[in-house]
Amino acid sequence: MSVSIITLIVLGIAVLGFFLGRQRALSLSASSGKRLHSLPGYYGQMVFLFAAVPALLLMTAWLFMQPILIEGRISANIPDSVIPEGGARSLVMADVRRIAGGLDALIADSGMTETALDQMRADETDVRSQLGNVGVALGSDVPVQVFEAAKEYRASSKTGSLLMSIAVLAVCGLFAAWSLLRISPDQRARNVSEGFVLALLVGASLVAILTTVGIVTSLLFETFHFFKLYPAREFFFSTVWNPQFRGGSELGILPLLWGTLYVSFIALLLAVPVGLMIAIYLAEYASKAMRSVAKPAIEVLAGIPTIVYGLFALITVGPFLRDWLAQPMGLGNSSSSVLTAGLVMGIMLIPFVSSLSDDIINAVPQSMRDGSFGLGATKSETIRQVILPAALPGVVGAVLLAASRAIGETMIVVMGAGAAAKLGLNPFEAMTTVTVKIVSQLTGDTEFASPETLVAFALGLTLFVFTLGLNVLALYIVRKYREQYE
Amino acid sequence: MNDMSRLERTVGTKNIKMECRDCQVYYGDTHAIKDVNVDIEDKTVTAFIGPSGCGKSTFLRCLNRMNDTISVARVEGQFKLDGEDIYDRRVDPVQLRAKVGMVFQKPNPFPKSIYDNVAYGPRIHGLARNKAELDDIVEQALRRGALWNEVKDRLDAPGTGLSGGQQQRLCIARAVATEPEVLLMDEPCSALDPIATAQVEELIDELRQSYSVVIVTHSMQQAARVSQKTAFFHLGNLVEFGETGQIFTNPVDPRTESYITGRIG
Asked: ABC transporter domain spans which residues (chain B) (predicted)?
């Protein structure tokens, strides 16, 4: 039975359980003359949940575990002799899986019987061409052991699915019956469904948390590999970034980190004052009509894909800065420069700062403004001396969020600042950032297990630690000062 | 106290500080204040009483042009402070609010230190030439606000950390520090407990020595305790205005009598 059919059956039993449970609760209450603790629907819901949730959970777990277990067993049975020189066991296992899939197709398409398949031998029939006929192309002839392994794989998968169907349906039926029998007027069915809701919500939060943990561990794992191949001290303290395809690269993070910080700094230098002033205008001065037009218009900036910003940097801002500033001042003649990327990134960040700060400034109670106006302060005095100090923690949080966004930005830098890893102060020079180098190292054609590729993970982890630190700092500041004016 | 102030009331006529004639206020299409005429005397506490939504707070906010900050509000009529029209084009509302200070219903200290809260007005208006003068102004204001003894050792503590009654007295001290001529109070005790209320009422009575005080209140007992003149508002109209003793003991208008005896409200 396929997974979708089992799911449908389980849900069918659960729906049936809902009506039975509701019915049973009502009739029990009528016959015993006791009032139900909960509304009748809750008893039905309880049976529904007990029928569906454990069975579906079991099925999910089974679907995860079965391939792992079967593959482990079969791959242990494959002799080393069939593994080609320089290849890996996992490649052979991929073949096994494809042949097993092909055999399924063979039975479905060409009407081959199971017994015929059992008697089929790789050394007697041309398995490769037969499989080719049903659309499964293999690179070479199939060795006997691999073919046998594929047959075994197929057989185990079939037994596994059969066992799974039985187990899932049994669990579903048993839990449904058990919860049906347990129903009595005193039973707290409301609280049971409350418990399920809680579990559902906790589960949803776990998805987010576990994903973060997963990302970090995968990064950590590869970074660990990298540091086995390349000294950590060199990575963190060397000022030269010079990857070579033939090995002997120098992979110092400092020039990249410097580029990242320089570009982000210029971006924030533009985005923070402009964004803050926009926020103040929108929150304090703009009329309702103006606000309803201006705010969405500014937020359009946030919706522009960064690659489009990159194009803007490449064909407009870069040449403009080169022709009107860099060349007349004799500071360089490159159209990609730190300043280009920084300015364009700053424009991208404006809506982040302005939108968040606007919300925060609006959250400052009106009584603060009244108090200040009542003392004869002007609008700008009120903003400078009362509203901004009160809103400061939130504004700092907004700025730090924008900063972590800037540090992680890639496309604008590739197209605006170039790809040359350099340590320098001249803002008209091309430089590059950590993110750009992650992309170029991973998409190059060097071997995966080389330090030149694995360095991408170390760079990624460093970046992650940086932005995580900024986010934690932002949260800390916001929390520490939040309640001051409440 | 009531008896004493009633004696005082009969003594002499006082200067008129603010004079309001034919005042109208509109909120969009709503006519919130209709034909109100009130004279506010110097060194007197004037109370505005009336049921909720009768326009007493709106009218109070006209006296220092706080309604200017509400875009839909429109004010008509004559409001004179010492004979000068405060809605005249030459008058700067910001300067006016320094002369006509305001204390709000809910204590609203700024998220700054106690000292900075009180020094806020004097700093904005440049009332002190140096730190010593500013210290002096702050101390005087806190003494006037009857708060000095409680906070003199912790002027650097945040104003928001004080109790509700202390916060309200801090707000009064803050308003007093800019040396206003008229002090407007919009239900200053409605968020306070009875003890804090008594302290603030006592303070209002002292402030009468130096300022003209206008207080909006929901509590008729409070109006009777602290004020010398009382105005009764109903549905945007000024129903009756006169000596507090007369309003409470011998009201002319039947509506006033109904409100005071608790039949409307």
From this structure: 11-260
Q: Report CB contact under 8 Å: B120, A369.
A: no
What b/e readout covers B128-139, taking b as 16+ CB neighbours within 10 angstroms?
A: beeeeebeebbb
B39 CA: distance to closest CA in chain A (Å): 21
Instruction: Quote the domain boundaries for residue B249.
Output: 2-260
Mutate to test the interface with A, among B66, B108, B181, B216 (most CBs of A within 10 A): B108
CA distance A280 to A355: 10
Contacts of residue A367 in chain B, CB cutoff 8 Å? Answer: 104, 106, 108
ipTM of this complex prediction, to 2 decimal places: 0.85
Asked if residues B212 and B82 have their Cβ atoms less than 8 Å apart, the reply is: no
pLDDT digits (tens, 9 = 90+) for A74-122: 888 777 777 766 667 777 788 888 888 888 887 777 777 777 777 777 6
CATH of the domain at B27: 3.40.50.300
pLDDT in tens, B127-178: 888 999 999 999 999 998 889 999 999 999 988 889 888 999 999 999 999 9
Q: Domain segments of chain A: what residues?
A: 3-187, 235-485
- Residue A294 backbone phi and psi in degrees, to 5: -70, -40
> Whole-angstrom Cα distance, residue A132 to residue A225?
40
Within a domain: B265 = no
Report the DSSP pairing between strands B16-27 and B30-41.
antiparallel
Q: Which CATH superfamily groups domain A235-485?
A: MetI-like (1.10.3720.10)
- The partner residue sitting opposite A377, judged by closest CB among B64, B108, B124, is B124
A372 at B interface, C-beta within 8 A: yes
CB contact under 8 A, A374 and B104: yes
Within 377-396 of A, beta carbons closer than 8 Å to B belong to 377-378, 381, 385-386, 389-390
